[in-house]
Structure formats: structure tokens, C-alpha cells
Amino acid sequence: FYFRLNKVLRERNSAKLAVCGPYLYYLMKGLESLQPFKFVCDGTFLWRGVRSEGREVLLRNYQRGRKVHWSGFSSASLSRKVALDFAGAGGVLLRLDLLPRGSRARDIRNLSMLRGEEEVLLLPNFVATVTREIREIDGRD
């Protein structure tokens, strides 16, 4: 269900969104009632691994200064290792520096089935500004 819902969110098709509307309303109300993820300026970052299939899209669209918009739900982790493992060989590791206010992220570590993943959920319509070009580090991006 998660994959289908995210597909609808990414397509932004108004007819399909209308069908999902009631479900999305209650889902978002519930998620918005959770405390926003508290970003602390202590060198803590969120990490997101993108598998190799998404690499070309990132290289083409994620250029310094460009705003990016994620329409669907996205997962990130407080663990760099978890994100690297998810990205796998040829994948890309994204470092997310969240703003201290207006967070579109929810800390779901205590709700997640996979507690070791240190998961933070990025809500739909997450917007970020690319601050660095993708670069190769130790054979990985």
C-alpha cells in the first residue's frame, strides 16, 4: 500500500488524489500530531540512501542551489551506516541538514518495526535546497 500511495502522491494526479483524500486526511492528522523531529545543531544529520537506479536522476537534478521537492513519504536515518547499506553498490548517500523550525520530519524510531534503522519520516511535500554537488567519496557518493 505504501508504494501505491507514494506513486499517487508523486504523480500529483488530482483524480487519484481525490480518491485517497479521506485516508490522507486522517493519516496526515495523525502524523502531524507527532512531535516534529528536533534538529539539534550538534553535527547530527539525517541520511538517506538512494539505490543505483536513482543515481542518474540525482546527478541530473541535484545541482547546487537548486530546490528539490519530494511529493511522497520518504525515510531517512540518523545512522549513516543504515543509509549506506540501503544505497548499496553504486548508490548515492544524501546528507540532510534540517532547519530548526517548521520541520516536515517526524521521529518514528519508537514506532518503527525496524528499530535499529533509527528512522525519521519525511512527510509529503518535503522541500530542500541542494547545498553541494554529488561527489565521489571512498568509491561511494
Automatic annotation (TrEMBL):
Stretches assigned to coiled coil: none
Q: What lineage does UniProt assign to this protein's organism?
A: Eukaryota, Cryptophyceae, Cryptomonadales, Cryptomonadaceae, Cryptomonas
- The superkingdom of the source organism is Eukaryota
MF terms from GO for this chain are: NAD+-protein-arginine ADP-ribosyltransferase activity; nucleotidyltransferase activity
Q: Does the keyword NAD apply?
A: yes
Q: What Pfam families does the database record attribute to this sequence? A: ART
Known EC number? 2.4.2.31
The similarity comment for this entry is: Belongs to the Arg-specific ADP-ribosyltransferase family.
Q: Which UniProt keywords apply?
A: Glycosyltransferase, NAD, NADP, Nucleotidyltransferase, Transferase
Q: Write out the catalysed reaction.
A: L-arginyl-[protein] + NAD(+) = N(omega)-(ADP-D-ribosyl)-L-arginyl-[protein] + nicotinamide + H(+)
Q: What is this protein called?
A: NAD(P)(+)--arginine ADP-ribosyltransferase
